[in-house]
């Protein structure tokens, strides 16, 4: 039983602490250590404030702080820490600590510009996220929903390139001017027909007695408005394009704040505005209810996004469409009327956060350490980045729903919920179960090629067929350059073996002149040839068929294949004209996809491809970093790191490795001990207080 709200400042403090820290971060711009120290202090303080409320909330308490009425009709600006808000706030504040440490390693390792602006915008974004989590009514959540869009715009457009600015504009157009307008319209309509916009466990009672048509319109305005940030199709286009942002921002967008705020907003609408029972009772033609329509949108999105992910060679793009798919699990589960479906939907919020944050952290670490962003360039990279790719493998298995990992638990609850709903209420739910199972198979299909390429292929024997980017079925040959890096020492002409190369150097001009002289005999010269020149008799000409053929000891003619001293297993000598990308970056290769993609025929165009399409950084020169190459295996292949070197973190800095392993461990723990972590206990409390008695916990 939920007790009366307790007036407390802690919900407000949780919102303000990182907002205040943003000013200290900006003031400390001359001292990076102090600036990042403020980030860590604010993150720890925010988590401590939120965690201090958790025990009481688990016992049924609600903490509330109100600024008072600020709109006609008695609408208050109110922050309320209830069980559902605590689920999102506890998750986001805890993962901000992990992401803050990772950001330090990533931003310094990538030598990013505007780092002060980055950390300040990050802090303000977390303030807006806490406001969304603790909002007590639709008006308050709308205010913070829009603030989050504004605060994260500098993060999306961080690189300040034309592409980054275009992605930022699209992000604002979709989430602020698109989704925000829909949320505002839905809020106004709810107030019009119910006279109340406060979140109420189980739904606002007045809506149950309102006109069904208006109620359904208000429901879909709110659900789609929040669903824009959750990436529901066809309103998802902003999300893949936002991958131009630095990888920690991608983690923020896809695992912690933005997309989760959209999924959380839909949860509020289903559970605390309309209520699960009314959402199921709002009938549509052909036996569909509002909840089943919502689940159907989720099922279509998760299937279509998974298929699109199969065709993405860029790792972050594949993860972006994976996010679109995985968030639709939450949308689908929220439309399942029953205890199991709702528990599974809410449990997938932290499960997806832990797994997807791990995956994006791994992608960022690969970029910083090896500048490798495309899956077709990753053959054998597992021996260079064993911890990173090992964590990537664990998180991928969790995303596919393998037991003992977080993804399995949440999907198991949703599967049971769909089956029970199909058996007891409507057979349509069985189709949703089929979509869940199909998506699990597709998850394996688009994550397995990454793992297979990294661990089970060698750089010089790479088979690109597991990929289906561009051409269905992939390539039947390697898309990687030779592991000698295209023999850059030959291109430079000073590999240290000057004596050997000097003997084989050929003057190209002399060869051309000689060829021209031999083949183009002037007609005049031909007529002036003296008749007294002795023309050899045919008998003097050796028989080309018999006389000069090599024979063995027994006189048997044996062909001699050793007609040249050249070793044909090595690349031929190449004239360095300076006109080709390979002259500048020997790791580039002209292949249909992967390294050197596109029709870059000039050095200028090739230089634009230094990052191979990944705009995690658009300003720094990586030429001398680590391997000194632009992506894919360096000259000589990947360096093998194992044993003590792995434990010492030689593959990267512990500022990035530790957050990766932490997020991966949380995904494992949530799959093994969900109750002990507090999430499942909190979720069961949420669902128990929002379902009618006849559909309570089985």
UniProtKB/TrEMBL annotation:
Keywords: Membrane, Oxidoreductase, Transmembrane, Transmembrane helix. Residues 563-577, 609-629 have a biased composition (Basic and acidic residues). InterPro entries: CPA3_Na-H_Antiporter_A, ND/Mrp_TM. Pfam families: Proton_antipo_M. Residues 473-637 are annotated as: Disordered. One of its GO terms (molecular function) is oxidoreductase activity. The chain crosses the membrane at residues 12-29, 41-63, 83-106, 118-136, 142-159, 171-194, 214-232, 244-266, 286-310, 319-340, 387-408, 428-448. It is an enzyme of class 1 (oxidoreductase). This is NADH/Ubiquinone/plastoquinone (Complex I). It comes from Halorubrum lacusprofundi (strain ATCC 49239 / DSM 5036 / JCM 8891 / ACAM 34).
């Amino acid at each position: 039983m939920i007790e009366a709200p307790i007036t407390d400042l802690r919900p407000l403090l949780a919102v303000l602490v990182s907002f205040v820290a943003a000013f200290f971060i900006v003031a400390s711009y001359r001292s990076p250590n102090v600036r990042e120290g403020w980030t860590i202090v604010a993150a720890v303080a925010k988590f401590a404030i939120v965690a201090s409320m958790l025990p009481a909330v688990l016992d049924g308490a609600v903490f509330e702080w109100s600024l008072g009425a600020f709109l006609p009709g008695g609408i208050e600006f109110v922050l309320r820490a209830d069980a559902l808000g605590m689920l999102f706030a506890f998750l986001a504040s805890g993962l901000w600590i992990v992401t803050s440490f990772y950001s330090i390693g990533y931003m310094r390792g990538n030598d990013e510009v505007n780092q002060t602006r980055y950390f300040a915008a990050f802090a303000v974004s977390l303030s807006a996220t806490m406001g969304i989590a603790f909002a007590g009514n639709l008006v308050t959540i709308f205010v913070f929903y829009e603030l989050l869009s504004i605060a994260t715009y500098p993060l999306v457009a961080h690189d300040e390139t034309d592409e980054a600015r275009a992605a930022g504009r699209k992000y604002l157009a979709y989430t602020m001017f698109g989704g925000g307008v829909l949320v505002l319209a839905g809020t106004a309509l709810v107030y019009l027909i119910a006279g109340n916009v406060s979140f109420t466990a189980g739904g606002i009672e007045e809506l149950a007695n309102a006109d069904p048509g208006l109620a359904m319109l208000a429901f879909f305005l709110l659900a789609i408005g929040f669903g824009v940030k959750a990436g529901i199709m066809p309103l998802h286009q902003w999300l893949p394009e936002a991958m131009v942002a630095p990888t920690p921002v991608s983690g923020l967008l896809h695992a912690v704040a933005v997309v989760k705020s959209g999924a959380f907003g839909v949860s509020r609408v289903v559970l605390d505005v309309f209520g699960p029972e009314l959402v199921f009772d709002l009938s549509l033609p052909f036996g569909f209810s509002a909840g089943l329509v919502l689940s159907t949108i989720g099922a279509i999105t998760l299937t279509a996004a998974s298929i699109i992910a199969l065709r993405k060679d860029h790792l972050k793009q594949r993860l972006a469409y994976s996010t679109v798919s995985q968030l639709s699990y939450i949308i689908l589960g929220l439309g399942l009327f029953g205890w199991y479906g709702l528990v599974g939907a809410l449990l997938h919020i932290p499960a997806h956060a832990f797994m997807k944050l791990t995956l994006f952290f791994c992608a960022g670490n690969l970029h910083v350490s090896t500048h490798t962003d495309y899956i077709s360039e990753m053959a054998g990279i597992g021996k260079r980045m064993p911890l990173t790719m090992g964590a990537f493998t664990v998180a991928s298995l969790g995303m596919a729903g393998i037991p003992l990992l977080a993804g399995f638990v949440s999907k198991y609850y949703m599967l049971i919920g769909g089956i029970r709903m199909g058996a007891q209420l409507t057979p349509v739910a069985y189709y949703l179960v089929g979509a869940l199972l199909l998506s699990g198979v597709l998850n394996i299909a688009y994550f397995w090629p990454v793992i297979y390429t990294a661990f089970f292929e060698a750089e010089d024997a790479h088979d690109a067929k597991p990929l289906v980017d561009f051409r269905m079925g992939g390539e039947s040959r390697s898309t990687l350059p030779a592991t000698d890096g295209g023999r850059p020492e030959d291109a430079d002409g000073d590999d240290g073996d000057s004596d050997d190369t000097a003997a084989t150097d050929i003057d190209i001009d002399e060869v051309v002149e000689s060829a021209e002289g031999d083949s183009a005999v002037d007609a005049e010269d031909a007529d002036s040839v003296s008749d007294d020149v002795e023309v050899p008799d045919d008998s003097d000409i050796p028989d080309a068929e018999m006389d000069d053929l090599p024979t063995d000891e027994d006189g048997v003619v044996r062909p001699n294949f050793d007609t040249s001293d050249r070793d044909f297993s090595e690349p031929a000598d190449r004239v360095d004209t300076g006109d080709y990308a390979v002259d500048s970056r020997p790791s580039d290769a002209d292949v249909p996809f992967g390294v050197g993609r596109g029709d870059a025929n000039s050095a200028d165009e090739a230089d634009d491809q230094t990052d191979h399409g990944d705009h995690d950084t658009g300003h720094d020169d990586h030429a001398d970093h680590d391997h000194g190459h632009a992506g894919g295996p360096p000259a000589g292949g990947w360096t093998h790191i194992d044993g003590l070197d792995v434990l010492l973190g030689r593959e990267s800095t512990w500022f990035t490795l530790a957050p990766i392993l932490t997020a991966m461990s949380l995904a494992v723990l949530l799959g093994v001990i969900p109750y002990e972590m507090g999430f499942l206990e909190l979720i069961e409390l949420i669902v128990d207080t929002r379902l009618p008695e006849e559909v309570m916990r089985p």
